[in-house]
Amino acid sequence: MFDRFFASLSHRVANWAGQPIAFVLALAIVLTWLVTGPVFHYSDTWQLVINTGTTIVTFLMVFLIQNAQNRDGSAIQAKLDELIRAVDAARNDFIGIEHLTEAELERIKSVLERECGDDESHRLAIERLIQRR
Description:
The chain is mostly helical. The protein has helices at 2-17, 20-35, 44-86, 102-115, 119-132. The protein is elongated.
């Protein structure tokens, strides 16, 4: 129950935070804070208001955005795993490799790059792809 609520909340907040209106609102808050500086004689309390507000918002947004990114990453991995499973010529060994260590992934990447051919043929293939654009 809580997981679904948190996922829904983090998804909505992450989507909203990425909209131009969120930036405009944040900018308006900062400009309002700046304009009120002379009224409050640039006091410590005046500075503390923006520091506290930005710290709280940043702290909460980190968790919400990380949750949304984790969920998106998991969905992409599931889709890729399904594509690998569905293609007859694909190697099913690649399903779930996102759980390997960085060193293990680098070894796999090196082997795949060697299987693709030498550097010159790889470079030429990339040049042909670029020329198509």
